[in-house]
Amino acid sequence: MITYQNIKDIQKLCREEKLEFWKVVELADAEERGVPEEESFDMMSEMYKAMELADTSYDGSLRSASGLAGGDGEKLHRYNEEGKNICGPFISKVMEKAIKMGESNACMRRIVAAPTAGSCGVIPAVFLTAGEELGIDYEQMTKAMYVAAGVGAVIAKNASIAGASGGCQAEIGSASAMAAAGLVSVMGGDHEAIGDAAAFALKNMLGLACDPVCGLVEVPCVKRNVAGAVNAVTSAQMALAGIRSAIPVDEVIDAMRRIGNDMSPTIKETGLGGLATTPTAVEIGKRM
């Protein structure tokens, strides 16, 4: 039976059973749900295609009910099309897709919560851009989804993926680690590099507060998806270059849990601290 409690367990199975990281996660999912491997794979593929549809169906004319989100993805798209971007084509497209997905969530469009609705832009931004810019096919991107899912499952089990319990490090941070791990996998990185990429990405997000203005998943959430997505790409590149994390990924996850426990409740989705209590945020709340 294939089971794992942490990333080290997955890596051990990769070595001992001669399995790829994604395959360990797929086998564990199929066994846990009592379905054939093919059914598990098809369902994961459908989730990737749902991310793709959410991206292609983005509507820049839509605004959220609060008026705080909408249209910025289209602005970034036009800026990128004009060739003015300073980040290069890959990172620029990642940024654009992250905002579009976050805005689609705020505007009540269909998205994939990966791992949460508030962090829904990170993985699609990285994976869809990789598929488009690097010519990676559906099968390989579906495998990357399994890698991301495995990392996310470990974080959820040993720490948290909820802003209410762990702050935004648990949402955007977790999504960034998941995306970094998946990107490394499709670029040919081994299970050690996958773990290092996740560690880098999560380390960069430790301590991130969850402080939504007016309690909505809009400000600063949508733009934080951009930060998480770009962080994932840079973390993946470091790992692919052979740079190793001084702190193992499982220890980083444990640190995130401890940091989340130490956080004040005012910066864990309550809207009682951080950006949510700035003068401008208070004025926005009054107008609403």
In short:
This protein has about 290 residues and is mainly alpha-helical. It contains 13 helices and no strands.
User: What is the approximate shape?
Assistant: globular
Structural class comes to mainly alpha
Report the portion of residues in β strands. under 5%
Distance between the termini: 53 Å
Helix content: 55-70%
DSSP helix count? Answer: 13
Mean pLDDT: 98
Number of strands: 0
SSE pattern: HHHHHHHHHHHHH
Low-confidence stretches: none
Radius of gyration: 18 Å
User: What characterizes the major β-sheet?
Assistant: none
Q: For this entry, what is the oligomeric state of its chains?
A: single chain
Outline the structure in words.
α2 (21-33) crosses α7 (138-158) and α7 (138-158) packs antiparallel against α9 (172-186). This protein has helices spanning 7-16, 21-33, 37-56, 72-81, 88-106, 122-134, 138-158, 163-166, 172-186, 191-203, 221-240, 249-262, 279-287. It is globular, with a radius of gyration of 18 Å. The termini are far apart. The mean pLDDT is 98. The chain is mainly α. Helices cover 63% and strands 0% of the residues. The protein contains 13 helices and no strands.
